[in-house]
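Morning, I've got a small favour to ask if you have a moment. I owe you a coffee for this, so here goes:
>
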Amino acid sequence: MNTEKEKISYIIARQIFDNLAEQKLDLDFKVLTQSILDAAEGKENPIDPAEAQAIMMAFSQKRQEEMQAEASVISEKNQKEGADFLAQNAEQDDFNVTESGLQYRIVTEGTGDKPAATQTVEVHYEGTLINGEVFDSSYQRGQTIEFPVNGVIQGWQEALQLM
């Protein structure tokens, strides 16, 4: 590839492929390439527009069903792992479980008054998945954050008022 047009064409084709690969579509790339070449050369589409629409609607429906089935399997796995994780925590002496099901462990006992739902707090926090992977961390950003207690998710509201 020597010209800018060749390079741009190649880059765009790669971007198209990467997008299709990310969607995990089972395609015949030789046919796909031929279709692009035919369209670029102004050749007539061998598939009737009404037939093309019907084929794509059926394909979309099938694809949606496959994605829902995949999501269902992942959801069931995550629910089981989550339930197992919570059960293991509940068995440990250093975990507290509230009536709502919130589980917490006191790492360092604090002093002072507990915040009310209407107050603003300044915190350092780290959010992790059950496998320990950090998904958000004020520590990693190197700065605390302030927010109203009643401005965060329910579980965190409850936990903050226990601190």
